Amino acid sequence: MGLVYADVELINGFDLELARRYMIGEEEVKRMNVKMLVDTGSIMLAINESIQEQLQLPVVEKRTVQLANSHIAEYDVVSQVELRFKNRRTMCNAIVLPGDSEPLLGAIPLEDMDVLIHPTRQELIVHPDHPYFAQMKMK
């Protein structure tokens, strides 16, 4: 199977909350569409510094991360990133990779949105057993 990419909308969750409280207008909510590598071997969402700057996501902590090449480094973690894919959404933290590194859509947001990789079409799809809303397993 080849590489799978998905078009995902990333939104500043803090802005969304301010808009819900009518403290800013909906047009002021920082958002962007990003083509992300769907990486089931990655645990979290990973964005790059360019995305973090454009969305103005606040750094909440630093975390030591082991990359696919076994290199271990410390990276910033930002909070309150809302992801939207088709009729699914989730809110999560994201690791901030340096520069214009390729953004990764990891296992936690994939599970939370209840989406799957279709192996034949090599694309991200909503779970066919739950097409209208995400379903989670609690056991």
Query: What would CATH call the class?
Result: Mainly Beta
Count of helical segments? 3
Total number of domains: 1
What is the H/E string?
EHEEHEEEEHEE
Q: Which structural class should the secondary elements be placed in?
A: alpha+beta
Please give the number of β-strands. 9
Provide the CATH superfamily. Acid Proteases
Mean pLDDT over the full residue set = 96
* Envelope shape: globular
The CATH architecture assignment turns out to be: Beta Barrel
Quick description:
With 139 residues, this protein is an alpha+beta fold. The chain contains three helices and nine strands.
What does this structure look like?
The mean pLDDT is 96. The longest helix has 8 residues, at 13-20. The protein starts with a strand and ends in a 13-residue tail after the last strand. It has a single domain (5-126), classed as Beta Barrel (Cathepsin D, subunit A, domain 1), CATH 2.40.70.10. It has 139 residues and is of the alpha+beta class. Helices cover 16% and strands 45% of the residues.
Keywords:
single chain; 139 residues; alpha+beta; Cathepsin D, subunit A, domain 1; seven-stranded mixed sheet; two-stranded antiparallel sheet; 3 helices
